[in-house]
Write a structure and sequence with these properties.
Layout (H helix, E strand, L loop, with lengths): L7 H11 L3 H11 L6 H9 L5 H9 L9 H4 L6 H31 L1 H6 L1 H38 L8 H15 L5 H25 L9 H19 L6 H11 L3
Length: 258
């Protein structure tokens, strides 16, 4: 609902990973806020993504004020929501696998080379499994989110007039995040939470700022970075065991052992 409040490159990554047309997301945001659809633009959008005959029929019958933007606009290349989401599960897993492979194998080679040489089979197989596990986690998150979107549309089509509140999309995200994270290894769940928490906090702050509910703070980024680093270094000195092994070893390489 507010892509302007997160970093552009992060939003681009999310759209590319989710494999949903960015134009379709923009149409949905506009409709949720009560604006009419530009039917000519809708047809131009779906035409770019190899629409099926069913998609074209839905778009041809679409009014300027539909209750929701239909599934045909969100996944114009497939008529079936089930096929869409199963295909997305496979595609996201395949596409994100090289990214997680890099994230897992590079630290293994750079920071744990001695352990790797002692037991290469065990460490390599474990790292490969964790790479696949992380890829499946993200794919399940994407697929589950889109499944909930499609279910919402299908329920409305069946006659249950639930509306299309922007808070539904937040609820869908909360539901699939809480479920998908259980696939990821337990030791990484807190790290993932700490990765997305600052982005979520920044986004919330910008939304509140746009609504004039909060005031801007000069050099806020510098302050938060300094506070975060002070916490990390404090834990490094006093309770090193609470930090992730990767962070600890990275500090060792930069500053040496204290």
């Amino acid at each position: 609902m507010h892509p302007d409040t997160i970093p552009k490159e992060f939003f681009t990554f999310m759209v590319k990973t989710a494999r949903v047309p960015a134009e379709s997301l923009a149409l949905n945001r506009s409709r949720v806020r009560g604006f009419p659809l530009d039917l000519k633009h809708v047809r131009e959008v779906v035409d770019r993504y190899k629409p099926t005959t069913g998609t074209l029929e839905v778009v041809a019958k679409l009014s300027e004020y539909p209750e929701v933007v239909p599934c045909a606009v969100l996944h114009p290349s497939f008529d079936s929501c089930r096929t869409t989401n199963m295909t997305r599960l496979i595609q996201v897993t395949r596409n994100i696998l090289p990214v997680y492979a890099t994230l897992n194998f590079v630290p293994l080679l750079a920071l744990r080379l001695k352990r790797l040489m002692k037991d290469p089979v065990k460490l390599t197989s474990k790292t490969a499994f964790n790479t696949l596990r992380s890829s499946v986690f993200l794919a399940i998150f994407v697929s589950m989110y889109q499944t909930q979107i499609c279910m919402h549309r299908n329920v409305l089509k069946a006659g249950w007039h639930l509306g299309d509140s922007k808070y539904l999309y937040w609820l869908f995200g909360l539901t699939c995040a809480g479920t998908a994270i259980m696939v990821e290894q337990e030791s990484r769940r807190a790290e993932l939470a700490m990765y997305v928490l600052p982005k979520a906090a920044t986004s919330l702050y910008k939304i509140l700022y746009q609504k004039n509910w909060v005031k801007g703070v000069k050099y806020w980024e510098v302050m938060t970075f300094s506070f975060a680093m002070s916490l990390i270094m404090s834990f490094y000195q006093q309770e090193e065991q609470v930090l992730s092994p990767f962070v600890t070893k990275l500090i060792y390489h930069i500053l040496g052992r204290s």
